[in-house]
Design brief:
It is a single chain. The protein is mostly beta strands. The chain has no helices and 17 strands. The chain has 2 domains: 108 residues, Immunoglobulin-like (Sandwich), CATH 2.60.40; 112 residues, Immunoglobulins (Immunoglobulin-like), CATH 2.60.40. Strand 14 and strand 15 form a beta hairpin. It starts with a strand and ends in a 7-residue tail after the last strand.
Length: 245
């Protein structure tokens, strides 16, 4: 059984090295490469095409060392296959190794399917709001049909500021009653960084994204580059303010 690689943010590229050996344990290449199959959840539903799958045999000229790369952002020919809240397992089918026909599970992984608030992939950073250090989920509020910029400060476990400037940041919001699809996302150019150490993410939620009042939203600030959640919490979009008579 291949290893579980972890819980990944949607649209990630997943890399997995694996090896082939003869009966005595010596490294050996595949006489017949076979094919890579990817299955979704505990079913025989498999990815229809090989789009986004790269199987590099004898990686870097090393006999018996192979590199698998799966780009989950590539939906060409497989619309709806890669979805958050699901598990996947990767199978090598019909290879010939040391004169034997081999079918084997290479690995498994999931897409945002291990926790509603924190995906454990790398060290999840402790987080603060300016002047209010907290390791608990961070509550945010805004009014319906109004634009608002949230200032989210990220510190590491030692309390030191984390430089966010080299990260690709994404602010993702889901309804806790329906975790299958995001209510909305905020990305560049609506996320910028500031602060002495670029530790503050300035997340601007537009009025259009806040068009519907909702008190059951969950949010995550993702580091897409490092595939980890930096901060998370609750978001309440309150009913639009009314002018006084």
């Amino acid at each position: 059984m291949g290893p579980y690689l972890g819980d990944f943010v949607e649209d990630s590229v997943i890399n997995h090295p694996w090896d082939t050996n003869d009966a005595n344990g010596a490294s050996i290449t595949r006489a017949v490469d076979g094919s890579i199959r990817i299955y979704k959840n505990n079913t025989d539903t498999q990815k229809t095409t090989a789009n986004g799958i790269t199987d590099t045999e004898d990686f870097d000229g090393l006999v018996g060392i192979h590199q698998l790369s799966v780009d989950t952002s590539d939906d060409t020919g497989d619309v709806g296959f890669w979805e958050r809240g699901n598990d996947y397992f990767v199978v090598l089918q019909g290879a010939t190794i040391d004169g034997q026909t081999v079918n084997a599970v290479l690995c498994s992984f999931s897409i945002e399917n291990r926790s509603r608030l924190n995906v454990i992939l790398g060290a999840v950073q402790s987080a603060t709001l300016p002047g209010n250090r907290t390791s608990s989920p961070v509550p945010l509020e805004m009014y319906q049909n109004e634009q608002k910029t949230f200032l989210l400060t990220v510190n590491d476990s030692s309390g030191d500021p984390v430089d966010l400037s080299a990260m690709t940041l994404r602010f993702v919001v889901h309804d806790e009653n329906d975790m299958t699809a995001a209510v909305f996302k905020v990305e560049l150019p609506d996320i910028t960084t500031s602060g002495v150490s670029n530790e503050i993410a300035n997340v601007t939620v537009s009025a259009a994204k806040a068009a519907t009042a909702n008190s059951s939203l969950l949010w995550k600030l993702w580091d897409i580059t490092g595939e980890q959640v930096l901060m998370s919490g609750n978001l309440k979009i309150k009913t639009a303010k009314k002018d006084s008579p």
